[in-house]
Amino acid sequence: MVITDIKVRKLFDDGPMKAIVSVTFDDQLVLHDIKVISVRDKNFIVMPSRKKSDGTYRDIVHPINAEFRGILEEEVLRAYEEEQARTEAEAEIEALESGDYSGKI
User: Fold this and answer.
1) In which domain, by residue range, is 47 found?
2) What is this structure's pTM?
3) Phi/psi of residue 73, each to 5°?
């Protein structure tokens, strides 16, 4: 199975959840709502889940083995970091153009 596309759907500034991501496999299957979470300066992914009646959560979908989970996590985190950097660069450009830039050049 090949990851053919990753879209960072939403970025978050506050709290441990940093992004919501969709991943396309083999240009045929899309998995929505993978979450990028940051705890103690370490990012990791959380698969889509459903809350059960006892208050616990159960993954709706998940990798079967550690090797594929590692590949998926690496690719999702790479896409998240690229999107975060692109968003920050766009914000800096916008601030420069508006005259509100206070960062270092």
Assistant:
1) 3-98
2) 0.85
3) -65, -45
